[in-house]
């Protein structure tokens, strides 16, 4: 790595009569973490220089020198030849200092009409926009995996739960489409968040705008921003767009954590509903029989750090008067880690979900336990003219008998069932089977296999539209 910057004097040091304390210099610097925004910083600077030339503040030659110099800086960074300096504090000053080294005094003209305040706000928005545009395809890939698994298991029967107790039989495909719907809402939240992220603060300068005859529409068009911030104080100071993104991330991770919890349970010896591929699991250091579901466990654990980042950003902003404050330097590490955590978790799930193997015999047997068709018997009696509250009591007595004798409702004889209500006839067994139970819920949003397949068709059309 080159040392081309380490001995350079700090660009913003002229006002001070003594050097910054070495500890304070290190304590206040952000270069260790904000250097990941180098592409966005250079992208914004090229657009700014282009605008300055179009309005006559820079000559065409000066603009070309700046653009060529910035391209060289980017090449040095990407080739590992750039010498990052803590004396220059942040990504902006490091790049500008190196640019000035390369092209001379013209490099110092780049900052005309802007401040680090609007520069960093622009960089963060560009960075977030780029990251959102990489996260969206991963969410779609996860949705595609869920749809694929749901279609494959549209007829597979499993117990549905409330309070983690057997409630009613459902199809595994229906269960997977529930997760699809949650991720779909998360995606809509992210798409909506992107609209507010894609607002350009550049031109707000330090806080009040600038006296130079800039044209912000030129810069916005070059940087592909949808809109321009309409108040300079707001443009440089608020980070609500980062908070909104982190709120999206916290909600997404909550969903992935709930899903993880099910995968951990279902892959256990106690449930044996699914088998996770070996590549998503690890073994034990002392117990050779173990196959640990590390990927869903880790995603479940990582959810907490995203929750923490959301609270961190909310707390960061809650006491700041207008406009920019140094506090805002603390927005980047929580945001960056949130981005990394979401991307990693989505990639893991998008790879893992299509490879899940459902143990259909085990889920079917589990659905037979716990009197999962009790509600079907109650509905059957209502259809025979019995009031629901009375039918509820009848079925309760039948279940109590089943608990005592170790029999499921479908295993009881017709004579036994008629002992609880004379309205029961031999057609009752059509509704007491698991297949009959799920098939009977054949309406939009129901668990019937035909409805799962219809939901899959709608989901595929939705994904195609994206």
From TrEMBL:
<dbReference type="InterPro" id="IPR008948">
    <property type="entry name" value="L-Aspartase-like"/>
</dbReference>
<comment type="similarity">
    <text>In the N-terminal section; belongs to the lyase 1 family. Argininosuccinate lyase subfamily.</text>
</comment>
<dbReference type="InterPro" id="IPR020557">
    <property type="entry name" value="Fumarate_lyase_CS"/>
</dbReference>
<dbReference type="InterPro" id="IPR022761">
    <property type="entry name" value="Fumarate_lyase_N"/>
</dbReference>
<dbReference type="InterPro" id="IPR009049">
    <property type="entry name" value="Argininosuccinate_lyase"/>
</dbReference>
<dbReference type="InterPro" id="IPR024083">
    <property type="entry name" value="Fumarase/histidase_N"/>
</dbReference>
<comment type="similarity">
    <text>Belongs to the lyase 1 family. Argininosuccinate lyase subfamily.</text>
</comment>
<dbReference type="Pfam" id="PF14698">
    <property type="entry name" value="ASL_C2"/>
</dbReference>
<feature type="domain" description="Argininosuccinate lyase C-terminal">
    <location>
        <begin position="371"/>
        <end position="439"/>
    </location>
</feature>
<dbReference type="GO" id="GO:0004056">
    <property type="term" value="F:argininosuccinate lyase activity"/>
</dbReference>
<protein>
    <recommendedName>
        <fullName>Argininosuccinate lyase</fullName>
        <ecNumber>4.3.2.1</ecNumber>
    </recommendedName>
</protein>
<keyword id="KW-0028">Amino-acid biosynthesis</keyword>
<feature type="domain" description="Fumarate lyase N-terminal">
    <location>
        <begin position="15"/>
        <end position="308"/>
    </location>
</feature>
<keyword id="KW-0963">Cytoplasm</keyword>
<keyword id="KW-0055">Arginine biosynthesis</keyword>
<keyword id="KW-0456">Lyase</keyword>
<comment type="pathway">
    <text>Amino-acid biosynthesis; L-arginine biosynthesis; L-arginine from L-ornithine and carbamoyl phosphate: step 3/3.</text>
</comment>
<dbReference type="InterPro" id="IPR029419">
    <property type="entry name" value="Arg_succ_lyase_C"/>
</dbReference>
<dbReference type="Pfam" id="PF00206">
    <property type="entry name" value="Lyase_1"/>
</dbReference>
<dbReference type="InterPro" id="IPR000362">
    <property type="entry name" value="Fumarate_lyase_fam"/>
</dbReference>
């Amino acid at each position: 790595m080159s040392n081309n910057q380490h001995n350079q004097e700090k660009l913003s040091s002229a006002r001070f009569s003594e050097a910054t304390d070495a500890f304070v210099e290190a304590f206040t610097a952000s270069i260790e973490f904000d250097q990941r925004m180098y592409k966005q910083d250079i992208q914004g600077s090229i657009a700014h220089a282009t605008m300055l030339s179009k309005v006559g503040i820079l000559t065409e030659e000066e603009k070309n020198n700046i653009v060529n110099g910035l391209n060289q800086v980017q090449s040095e960074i990407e080739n590992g030849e750039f010498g990052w300096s803590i004396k220059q504090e942040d990504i902006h000053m490091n790049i500008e200092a190196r640019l000035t080294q390369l092209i001379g005094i013209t490099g110092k003209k780049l900052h005309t009409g802007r401040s680090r305040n609007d520069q960093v706000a622009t960089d963060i928005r560009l960075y977030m926009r780029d990251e959102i545009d990489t996260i969206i395809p991963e969410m779609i890939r996860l949705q595609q995996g869920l749809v694929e698994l749901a279609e494959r298991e549209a007829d597979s029967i499993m117990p549905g739960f409330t309070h983690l107790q057997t409630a009613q039989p459902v199809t595994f495909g229906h269960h997977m489409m529930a997760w699809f719907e949650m991720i779909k809402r998360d995606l809509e939240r992210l798409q909506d968040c992107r609209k507010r992220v894609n607002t350009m603060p550049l031109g707000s300068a330090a806080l009040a705008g600038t006296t130079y005859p800039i044209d912000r529409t030129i810069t916005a068009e070059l940087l592909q921003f949808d809109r321009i911030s309409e108040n300079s104080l707001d443009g440089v100071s608020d980070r609500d767009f980062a908070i909104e993104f982190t709120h999206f991330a916290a909600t997404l991770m909550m969903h992935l954590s709930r899903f993880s919890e099910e995968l951990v349970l279902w892959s256990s010896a106690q449930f044996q509903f699914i088998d996770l591929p070996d590549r998503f699991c690890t073994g034990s250091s002392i117990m050779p029989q173990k196959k640990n579901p590390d990927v869903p466990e880790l995603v479940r654990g990582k959810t907490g750090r995203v929750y923490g980042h959301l609270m961190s950003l909310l707390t960061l902003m809650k006491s700041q008067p207008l406009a920019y404050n140094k506090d805002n330097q603390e927005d980047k590490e929580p945001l960056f880690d949130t981005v990394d955590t979401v991307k990693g978790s989505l990639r893991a799930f998008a790879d893992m979900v299509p490879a899940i193997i459902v143990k259909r015999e085990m889920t079917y047997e589990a659905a037979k336990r716990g009197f999962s068709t009790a509600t079907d018997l109650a509905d059957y009696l209502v259809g025979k003219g019995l009031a629901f509250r009375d039918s509820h009591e009848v079925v309760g007595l039948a279940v109590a008998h089943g608990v005592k004798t170790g029999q499921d409702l479908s295993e009881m004889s017709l004579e036994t069932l008629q002992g609880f209500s004379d309205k029961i006839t031999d057609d009752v067994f059509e509704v007491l089977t698991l297949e009959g139970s799920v098939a009977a819920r054949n309406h939009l949003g129901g668990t019937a296999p035909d409805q799962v397949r219809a939901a899959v068709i709608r989901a595929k059309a939705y994904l195609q539209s994206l």
